[in-house]
Structures are given as C-alpha cells and as structure tokens.
Design brief:
- The protein is α+β, with helices and mostly antiparallel strands.
- It has helices at residues 2-30, 49-55, 67-75, 118-142, 151-156, 230-234, and strands spanning 167-172, 176-178, 182-185, 189-190, 199-200, 204-205, 210-212, 217-228, 244-251, 261-266, 273-284, 289-296, 302-304, 309-316.
C-alpha cells in the first residue's frame, strides 16, 4: 500500500514538472525577437585592436548588417576624415587686369619687298583683262555667237607710257650775225606761242640758250639752224674749199674736250638761205649744260635767221 502511494506521488510530480517546462517554452517562442545589433564604420577608417575591444563593436559572422543604416552612417560621416587633396579648394576670384607692360625690343628688319613699277602694274592689268575677255569669248562661242571681242586685239597693241620729265622745243627769238672766222654761241630763245611747242622741267634757260642736265642720263638733242649767206655771195673774193660753216651742240662750251654733235656744210648753195640739221645723243652728268655753237670759216659774215630750232629731251638714266 505504501509503495503504491509513493508511485502515485512521483507520477504527479513528473507531470507537473513537464507542464511547467512546456509553458515556459511557449513563452519563449511568443517573445518578440530583439533587433540584431549593427556595426557601422566610417568610410576609409581603421581601428586598432585596443579600440575594437574597448568599444565592443566587433561584428561576428552570425550578425546581419543593415544596408540603409550603413548608408546613412556613410552620408553623415565627418568630412575631416578625407585626405587634404580631396577637399574642395576655394579659388580666388580674378581681379581687374593690370597695366600693360613695356614694349618689347624691335625685331630684325625684314627682307626688301619687290619693286613694283608702272610697267609691271600695267602688265598685270592687261593679263587680267585678257583672261576675262577670253572667258567671255568662250561663253559667246558656246552660245553660238561668232563675233570675237575687239578688246583683246586692242590690248595687244598697248604699250606702257611714262611721263617725260625733261623736254623742250624752243626757237631763236631774233637774227644773229656771225662774223667771219668766228665761233658764236646762240642765245635768246623763246617758246613759240603756237600749239605744239613745249617746255617741261627746269633744265632749259632760254635767255642763255643752255640746257642744264638735272640728273645724270642719256639725252637726245637736235637743232635746225637757218643760215643766210648772202653776204658771202656778194663778196668779190671767190669761194675756197675751206669756206664752210659748222654747227655744233657742245658740252660745257668745250667742243673739243667733250664729245659734241657736229654738222659741216659748204657755201656753194645757190639759194639765199639754207638749213643745217644736227641730231644725236649725249650722256650728261648732273649739272652739265649743252648749247648750240656756229663756226663761220668763210671770208664773210653770215646771219642765223630767227625761228631756228633747238630741241632736247631726257631718254633715260
């Protein structure tokens, strides 16, 4: 009887203990989960072992990391943790421009340019007109026109002209008597009032009959001397072979020292007046002058008629 009581008491104690353990297990299952602790670190920072142990924030493999919390921690990180070269530097604002500096040294001189003359410009203009005319002529031929422009032919005959700076044409103002065996310089000229005569430049002095060269160059001279030899024909002496008249254009009045233009004629003409023509080229230095001389080698005087011509011009240097 006593054994049966002990067995019943033991069964009651075991069932009560089992019920209590099941109730506690249900309470544990119904209790909400505590949030898993998260561990975040500042970007690009490291902690020493001692710091990790002190803070107690070491992440174990079984814990889960929250991405949103990690991103917010990264955004709110302190800026001072970045290196100095990654910080944004404030650039100073540009100020007003300063005064201009002094001029630099002068460079070396360039090579001389090409000399452009009137002849070169005229030639280029002719080529431009010729090209335009040929282009227009080709268009006219393609259109059925058979007439060629005459401007092309006219251009072929064009030559370059330049202004003559020194030139003169003057006449003797009055008659000049040349005694026998005498060399006389003709003076007192004038520019004829009739159209056609000219006087360019300042080289010709009509009162002295001398032309002074303004520059060194080649000059062309000519003279038409009208001679009245009636006094020779009236003389009772017979004409000799050496009776003649020379007309010269001399440099510096030195007809034998410098080259001169000369014409010699006899006095056998039956007319009362005859003309001696002298023409040629002379090279004059700047400042030298030329003039007309008449040498009467006859035995009687002769008279140079008014209207005798003296002409000259500068041909070139």
């Amino acid at each position: 009887m006593r054994l049966w009581l002990l067995a019943a008491l033991a069964a009651m104690l075991w069932s009560q203990e089992t019920f209590t353990a099941g109730a506690e297990a249900r309470k544990v299952r119904k209790k909400p989960k505590e949030p898993t602790p998260q561990h975040t670190e500042a970007f690009n920072t490291t902690l020493s072992n001692s710091e990790e142990l002190d803070e107690g924030t070491k992440v174990t493999e079984g814990h889960r990391v929250d991405p949103h919390g990690s991103w917010m921690d990264f955004v709110k990180r302190p800026v001072g943790n970045f290196p100095g070269k990654c910080r944004k530097r404030k650039r100073p604002l540009p100020g007003p421009p300063g005064p201009p500096g002094p001029p630099g040294p002068q460079g070396p001189p360039g090579s001389p340019g090409a000399e452009v003359t009137q002849e070169v410009l005229l030639q280029e203009f002719k080529e431009m007109i010729k090209e335009a005319t040929e282009r227009r002529a080709s268009v006219d031929r393609s259109g059925g026109s058979s007439q060629l422009p005459t401007a092309l032919l006219a251009l072929e005959g064009m030559v370059s002209y330049r202004r003559i700076e020194e030139a003169f044409h003057c006449k003797l103002r009055g008659p000049v008597v040349v005694d026998k065996k005498t060399l006389t310089e003709l003076q007192n000229f004038q520019t004829p009032p009739a159209k056609g005569a000219f006087l360019r430049g300042t080289g010709m002095d009509q009162s002295t009959g001398r032309f002074t060269a303004p520059i060194t160059g080649i000059y062309q001279f000519s003279a038409n001397v009208h001679i009245d030899h009636s006094e020779v024909k009236k003389s009772k002496s017979q004409l000799r072979a050496r009776d003649n008249v020379r007309v010269l254009i001399c440099i510096e009045s030195l007809c034998h020292r410098y080259t001169s233009l000369e014409m010699i004629v006899g006095l056998e003409s039956n007319s009362k007046i005859f003309t001696v023509y002298v023409h040629g080229l002379l090279e004059l230095q700047a400042g030298q002058y030329t003039s007309i001389f008449v040498d009467n080698a006859a035995g009687a005087s002769i008279t140079i008629q008014n209207g005798s011509d003296f002409m000259g011009m500068l041909l070139g240097v």
